[in-house]
Amino acid sequence: MRVAEQNRALRETTRQAIERAAVRIFARHGFAASSIRHIAEEAGLSIGSIYRHYASKEVLFDDLLKQAAAGLEAVSDTLSGDGDPLALVRGFTHDFLSDLAGDQEAAEFYLVINQGFLSDTPAGTAARLATEQGSLWEAFAELIRRGQTSGQFADGDPEQLTAYYFAMLSGIANMRLVIQDALTDSGADVVLRLLTGEGNP
């Protein structure tokens, strides 16, 4: 039994190493220009080790997109709760920026997610990814409506404010790989000014 558990733990460790390497490779080179050989070299594993876990580059990419879709679904569920709109948005913004500031892998994974919208795999996971993103944006826009009613957020079209908010986060994630240590999680209030109007003329 102990040997079986150790083997499972080893397989899981190897799988995680493969996924981390794949995120780095896909983020740097894009899905089309990446290969199993590149991923194996980045992970320090043999090509055969990769294929024991994933049948192809497409399957590996698709698995990463499934994780991303599940993450979007979880965030959407959180933002759809009955909590205070500003507190929910501030918490999400802080967590997002904190992840980026503390770990370059978070920014790389975000880049892979963006690629997922343009590089679908045979399993069609990109369609689910788009659906989950749509649900997240709908939940966020509803939060803005609620916050506007209570005077927490500035006036404006909720859908448009949502689009600009996530465009800002996307830009920050992309810049994380360039500015690196210049980014801190204290920027949440700066981002929130788009919604609250505080400090704007």
The helix/strand series, from N terminus to C terminus, equals: HHHHHHHHH
**Main sheet characteristics:** none
CATH class of the largest domain: Mainly Alpha
Strand content: under 5%
What gap, in angstroms, lies between the N and C termini? 67 Å
Report the uncertain regions. Answer: none
CATH architecture of the largest domain: Orthogonal Bundle
* Secondary-structure class: mainly alpha
Helix share of residues? over 70%
Tally of individual domains: 2
CATH topology of the largest domain: Tetracycline Repressor, domain 2
| CATH homologous superfamily label of the largest domain | Tetracycline Repressor, domain 2
Based on CA inertia axes, which overall geometry fits? elongated
Number of distinct helices: 9
The count of DSSP E runs of length 2 or more, i.e. the number of strands, is 0
Determine the oligomeric state from the structure: single chain
Protein model, in words:
With 201 residues, the protein is mostly helical. The chain folds into two domains: 1-54, Homeodomain-like (Arc Repressor Mutant, subunit A); 63-196, Tetracycline Repressor, domain 2 (Orthogonal Bundle). 76% of the residues lie in helices and 0% in strands. The chain contains nine helices and no strands. The termini are far apart.
